[in-house]
Amino acid sequence: MVRLLKRAGIPATLLVSAPAATGADVAARAGGHGLSVAIFLCVILATVGITAWAARRTNTREDLYAAGGGIGGVKNGLALAGDYMSAAAFLGISSMIYSVGFDGLAYAVGFVVGWPIIMFLIAERLRRLGRFTFTDVLGYRLSEKPVRILGASSSLVTIAFYLIAQMVGAGQLVRLLFGLPYEVAIVLVGVLMTAYVAFGGMLATTWVQIVKAVLLLGGASTMALLVLARFGFSYDALIDSAVGIHKAGDAILTAGPMLKDPLNAISLGIALMFGTAGLPHILMRFFTVNNVFEARKSIVIAVSLFALFVVLIFTIGYGAVTLLPGDARYVGAEGVVGGNNMVAMHVADAVGGSAFMGFMAAVAFATILAVVAGLTLSGATAISHDLYASVFRKDRTVERDELLIFKSATVGIGLVAIALGLLFKDQNVAFMVGLAFAIAASANFPVLLLAMSWRGLTTRGALVGGSVGLGSAVALTVAGPTVWVKTLGNAAPLFPLDSPAIVSMSLGFLGCWLASVTDRSARGDADRTGFDRMIGSASGPSSAR
Amino acid sequence: MKNQALSFLLSAGVCAAYFGLLAFASLYPEIAKSSAIGALPWSIVLAMSVIVLAVALTVLYVRFANAADARADASPGDAGRWFGY
């Protein structure tokens, strides 16, 4: 492998430090191929070029946070879909379908059905009422200082958990695919994402996301077509073959381990559906379009592309069931070579050869970069806009200072992300994405939805509901089987469900309602009146910026 | 606020479809894996149907909402606007 990598032009100092032999085999096929290294470098050069181009067009707060509001609906839809088509979704769901079949598909459908919820309940009102972040909407009618602190805090906590999972995944993936040491991969990803966001702001982040979405959809479509070609373009033949080969037989066509317990399945479904509507980096994108029409159009594009993506992953996952077993290059005595997350990469190799696998590896790297950049942008905006400009420097904000704080926050988040990526090396962090969705569904979604649609919500209700949702999501995740038993090694969980959303989101709504209806304060009355004022002042034409 | 009830109704419909799929696969695994169309089982057919439903409802909603708002923007006042704000 070392010889192959050297032949491909990778410096000896960047060669893999001590990967498992199986992982080294994967790197030899992906990273060792000259084409994949060339594409890998092209991805970095292209994204840096985009950042340089965007930096020249990013001068104001509006540019930095919302790309000047000049992103069209189609482009924003591509970027939204790109935010969701993460490496975790591409590699993780195909791996899940390969391992347990239908559970993986049901999991992926949960992501799709989150989009209509955003459309019906959140997007258009958010676009009319907000400016840069979802906490703008809360500050519109509620006491600004406390709700901004609450919104920014829950945003940062959500982003932190999401970012840790992405960084650790990035380090492991780049090590496996390109043979780079884990630490080098983490620093590389951290430096690149910081550069995109600090210099190019939302414009660079959006275009990086668009490029990656096009590459990923193109690559996955090609892979799925090549898989189907093996079966005469017949899903019947594909499914028949998968059932015949998988050790679980036709059990891969129905509820597996994840769905066996209906309550657990529905709780996870709640986190996926409603968590989408509370993720700060997704919500921020609705401020990059010119008006409500474009915001709606962008959701149509996003849900259509993500639905296509799920169908492609479904094809690739069941294709993996039929194509990988029996070939020692892909499945050894200890399971999938390089780990289960390499299933999609092995399928790329099986149907398109090592050059195609190298291409998909480079696309996976671009995917990681784009997603962590979106998260970093959202976190830095929470610090500079929600906390610094709106809470600490209220009415005394100088735009130049706010931009400086944004860039400093971006660098700070980049450094923290690198540190956390190194700290959590070799830790099981898979639960953190689920936790991020549970927090978004339990803390952000109830408060945001009620602030925009229920006159009775008061500041006290928002604070109680948001805090209870945030606290219960974290506490119940820690007490659940994934962390309490599998990570901390205890005998039995304190809370029976893997995903706490069915309880924590209900507690979030209950907290908002109970603390609001019992609020007899003058502030509560002002909050209720503020709802009428909010509707009145935001009733301009839909075509208005 | 016009159409807020419709928004909640549509959201409830999407929830019912998805959670119905999860409950069906979980409670009736034998039926879920039985053949629906050729070799395709009910579980996969229903999962794909939920995806199609989610996309179709979003597209229809956006068509109606954008058409209503375009009409409202073209005439004085905000009467007829999709959400009224």
Automatic annotation (TrEMBL), chain A:
<feature type="transmembrane region" description="Helical">
    <location>
        <begin position="33"/>
        <end position="55"/>
    </location>
</feature>
<feature type="transmembrane region" description="Helical">
    <location>
        <begin position="500"/>
        <end position="518"/>
    </location>
</feature>
<dbReference type="Pfam" id="PF00474">
    <property type="entry name" value="SSF"/>
</dbReference>
<dbReference type="GO" id="GO:0005886">
    <property type="term" value="C:plasma membrane"/>
</dbReference>
<protein>
    <submittedName>
        <fullName>Cation/acetate symporter</fullName>
    </submittedName>
</protein>
<feature type="transmembrane region" description="Helical">
    <location>
        <begin position="355"/>
        <end position="383"/>
    </location>
</feature>
<feature type="transmembrane region" description="Helical">
    <location>
        <begin position="76"/>
        <end position="98"/>
    </location>
</feature>
<feature type="transmembrane region" description="Helical">
    <location>
        <begin position="462"/>
        <end position="480"/>
    </location>
</feature>
<keyword id="KW-0812">Transmembrane</keyword>
<dbReference type="InterPro" id="IPR018212">
    <property type="entry name" value="Na/solute_symporter_CS"/>
</dbReference>
<feature type="transmembrane region" description="Helical">
    <location>
        <begin position="214"/>
        <end position="233"/>
    </location>
</feature>
<dbReference type="GO" id="GO:0006814">
    <property type="term" value="P:sodium ion transport"/>
</dbReference>
<keyword id="KW-0406">Ion transport</keyword>
<comment type="similarity">
    <text>Belongs to the sodium:solute symporter (SSF) (TC 2.A.21) family.</text>
</comment>
<feature type="transmembrane region" description="Helical">
    <location>
        <begin position="104"/>
        <end position="126"/>
    </location>
</feature>
<keyword id="KW-0769">Symport</keyword>
<dbReference type="GO" id="GO:0015123">
    <property type="term" value="F:acetate transmembrane transporter activity"/>
</dbReference>
<feature type="transmembrane region" description="Helical">
    <location>
        <begin position="299"/>
        <end position="321"/>
    </location>
</feature>
<feature type="transmembrane region" description="Helical">
    <location>
        <begin position="185"/>
        <end position="207"/>
    </location>
</feature>
<feature type="transmembrane region" description="Helical">
    <location>
        <begin position="404"/>
        <end position="424"/>
    </location>
</feature>
<keyword id="KW-0813">Transport</keyword>
<dbReference type="InterPro" id="IPR038377">
    <property type="entry name" value="Na/Glc_symporter_sf"/>
</dbReference>
TrEMBL record, chain B:
<dbReference type="Pfam" id="PF04341">
    <property type="entry name" value="DUF485"/>
</dbReference>
<dbReference type="InterPro" id="IPR007436">
    <property type="entry name" value="DUF485"/>
</dbReference>
<keyword id="KW-0812">Transmembrane</keyword>
<keyword id="KW-0472">Membrane</keyword>
<feature type="transmembrane region" description="Helical">
    <location>
        <begin position="7"/>
        <end position="28"/>
    </location>
</feature>
<feature type="transmembrane region" description="Helical">
    <location>
        <begin position="40"/>
        <end position="62"/>
    </location>
</feature>
<protein>
    <submittedName>
        <fullName>Uncharacterized protein DUF485</fullName>
    </submittedName>
</protein>
<keyword id="KW-1133">Transmembrane helix</keyword>
